[in-house]
């Protein structure tokens, strides 16, 4: 085996470890801390009431309806593909599927969604900010659980217009690496 092939194979073998280490670094620079503070302030005052949303599940299927969110509370009422509802508070959620009559209770202590249901939402301590990206008019921030980053990653995308943040996209990557996207219309 040539030295060049060994080096490339070694690099490819180590790439996932290097990327994982980068993805779970705690954010800590001044401008990034200021952005994290702005996002926390947004979540202290946000009050979405019956805002239209579209959700894309990991299998590519989509649905939508109306969402209500305020600190510590979430209510997603799906009208498509059929009537469903997810009601969540700080520690638990209840998912009701009208099509089959099922009711599922979900603990949020270790889920990605639970990171956004504190009252107030705190982006420190048990929640770790793993990435902050900013460009003109846009802010993106990624969050994970500090004690177990492999449980999932939440990426929030905001419009940043005249100093005011407005959430428009939430991406949830679960522990099985499946992506769910929620777009606020």
TrEMBL record:
Name listed for the protein in its UniProt record: Outer membrane lipoprotein carrier protein LolA
Top-rank taxon: Bacteria
Transmembrane spans: none
Alphabetical keyword list: Signal
Source organism phylogeny: Bacteria, Pseudomonadati, Pseudomonadota, Alphaproteobacteria, Acetobacterales
SUPFAM superfamilies membership: Prokaryotic lipoproteins and lipoprotein localization factors (SSF89392)
Pfam families per UniProt: LolA
Signal peptide per UniProt: 1-20
